[in-house]
Amino acid sequence: MIRYSLKLFLIGFTVFITACSSDSPSALNDVDMDTAEDASYEMANDEATEEKALGFEGEAEESQEQEIVQEDEQVVKNQLPDVQMIIYTGHIQVEVDDLTTMNETIRTKVAKLGGYVVSSEEYVSGEGERRHGRIQLRIPQEHYEEMMRFTEENSAKVMEKVSNGQDVSEEYVDLESRLRSKEAVEERLLTFMDQAKKTDDLLKISNDLSAVQEDIERIKGRMDYLDNQVAFSTITINIQENQVKVSELQGRDDLNTGEKAQSLFMNTLNFLITVGSGFVVFLVGLSPILIPLLIAGGFIWWKVRTKKRSHSNE
User: Fold this and answer.
1) Which domain covers residue 149, as residue numbers?
2) How many domains does the chain contain in total?
3) Which residue numbers delimit the DUF4349 domain (predicted)?
4) Within this chain, do residues 16 and 159 fall inside the same structural domain, yes or no?
5) Which of 105, 131, 203, 288 is the most exposed, having the fewest neighbouring CB atoms within 10 Å of its CB?
């Protein structure tokens, strides 16, 4: 029984070894091929998935940029008709009975309307020495026409009137668009600066950021200027007084006859003293030359006179 069992065990073990030695290469090859095919398939799927993801991401970015551009263009188109930003400037030249009264009237009206006077001057010129004045003022835009009419109504005569308007709506909308673009660039540069680790990168980003921020400040400054010019209109008023200045008869106190005569007398004496002093200085200064010349001249004159006498005696 034991021998029979041992034989069966040996026969079975031999068959098992034979089967393993004959089937193991193909089995291993099958396993390797299956594994390689699965791996290549998975890699292909991963690459395809990644390409699709990148493709979708690129398309999404391009689509987003196109949407932003279209949105900005639509904003510009929508705002241009609605936003009317006009800078009004006016010039009016009037003739009045009294310059001082007109100045006070204009200043009172300007303060009441919420404006302010930029500059003011008065001078006398022309035939008859007429008084003239010039006032430049800033007035809220909604009161521009009212102030122009008020000046006309309170003057005796309107000699010239000019009113101009400059539409800056398109420029202002363009500035707003540029400002949004610059602020977006500024935000990206700030993000890059936080992520940068190299000194060279930090310096380059810092320089670019400074340039962008400078552009932003310049754009904001221009926008503030346009806002102020639109909010307050500028009016220049030239005023001429129609009264001719008549010279008054000078009084006795204004003539000062005695003082003027005394002043003239003293000036004459001072002139004579100055001339005499100059002559004395001239003689003294040239005495080294004048004295020899006088001696020589006297000697020659004496010789000539002596000869004439001798000839007359003969």
Assistant:
1) 84-245
2) 2
3) 84-301
4) no
5) 288
Q: Answer yes or no: do 103 and 192 share one domain.
A: yes
**Residue of higher predicted confidence among 142 and 71:** 142
| 33/115 same-domain check | no
The full DSSP string for the chain is: -HHHHHHHHHHHHHHHHHHHHHHHHHHHHHHHHHHHHHHHHHHHHHHHHHHHHHHHHHHHHHHHHHHHHHHHHHHHHHHHHH---EEEEEEEEEEES-HHHHHHHHHHHHHHTT-EEEEEEEEEETTTTEEEEEEEEEEEGGGHHHHHHHHHHTSSEEEEEEEEEEE-HHHHHHHHHHHHHHHHHHHHHHHHHHH--SHHHHHHHHHHHHHHHHHHHHHHHHHHHHHHHHHEEEEEEEEEE-PPPPPPPP-HHHH-HHHHHHHHHHHHHHHHHHHHHHHHHHHHHHHHHHHHHHHHHHHHHHHHHHHHHHHHH-
Do residues 178 and 219 touch, judged by C-beta distance below 8 A? Answer: yes
Whether 267 is covered by a domain: the verdict is no
Query: Residue 282 falls within a domain, yes or no?
Result: no
pLDDT digits (tens, 9 = 90+) for 94-130: 999 999 999 999 999 999 999 999 999 999 886 667 8
pLDDT at 53: 39
Task: Please check whether residues 192 and 117 belong to one and the same domain.
Answer: yes
Domain edge (last residue) among 44, 60, 76:
60
Cβ(206)–Cβ(194) under 8 Å? no
Q: Is residue 285 part of a domain?
A: no
Structure tokens at 149: 């009419």
Claim to verify: residue 47 and residue 123 sit in the same structural domain: no
**Assigned token pair, 246:** 């008549």
CA end-to-end distance (rounded Å), the chain: 214
